[in-house]
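INFO  loader      accepted 1 record
INFO  loader      residues=360
INFO  predictor   begin
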Amino acid sequence: MRTRRKAVVAVLAAALLTMPLAACGGDDKAAGEGFTVGLLLPSRAVPRWEHADRPLIQAQVKKLCPGCRTEYANAENDVTRQRQQMISMITKGARVLILDAADTRALRSSIQEADRAGVPVIAYDRLAEGPITGYVGFDGLQVGRLQGEALLKALGKKAGSARVVMMNGDPTSPNAESYRKGALDVLTGEVRIARSYDTPDWSTQNAHTNMSAAIAALGPDRIDGVLAANDNIAAGVVAALKSAGVTKLPPVTGQDADLDAVRRVVKGEQYMTVYKPFAKEAAAVAAMAIAVGRGEDPRDSATTTVDSPTTKGIPSVLLQPRPVRARDIERTLIKGGLYTTGQICTRELLTACARAGLTR
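INFO  predictor   done
INFO  writer      dumping tokens
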């Protein structure tokens, strides 16, 4: 480990010697020049990263700084790979990094190394530990509350005796803990949490395995609701319930408004999802990254501050999530420009779409 660390520091030191002085920002000439923004996303397992966040951030960077370029890398849920990607971007002269950490704790040392190299890191969607310069994301507690409130509404008068399975997110993600806490703020004392599982990598397969275990322990007809932390997890939950022969599915929550999940909501297989307006998140992080890259104060781009386990008063932008049930799809997702009716309403869903008020 000590040898590896020395090698990493040596690479970063070499990068510093080869960086142009303008890369440090702070002079008028640098403010008018283009530069490289590093964009590091955590995985391809969750569809939003490649389908929404990546193109939206790249487009916003180009819009705000026509001379700037985005260097992109996906960690594929591999912390070691993401460390190497960060080093590579710094070595190539990236002036600022936008980081959605594959593991917010494990990347702390890499963020410290970037800081020593004079390259600011903007945490995106997940609040990374270490000396980050700014943070853009959503209120994770509110996401969990929205899911919990929706589940209680779906259960109605039966909530007091209801058995609920909690399918939490990846335990390495601080967001997963926020979602869980927000949901428990609403559900504790209102329902019985019969089983609770973490879902490594937010994986549909892991969710399917855990849900199958819950069904085996409780019985296929003795689960009244499922608090699924995101749509990937919800997909595994629904598949496991169907495999167990459950024909009347209990209410299942979700998050991210993935297209497949929206279709499940239309069909009645998933009760709701939580939409986080990715375009606003992308615009906010691009604006902060460009400002910081030009040597400006990140507090000028922030609307609030947050504390991480290692850093206090981080300049931040926290956006508000929105609950989406079938009746909300048109006004929230279609009018919001996320999807068209044609994308959602496949031939097999035309009848269900008509019931939901979605017509081409």
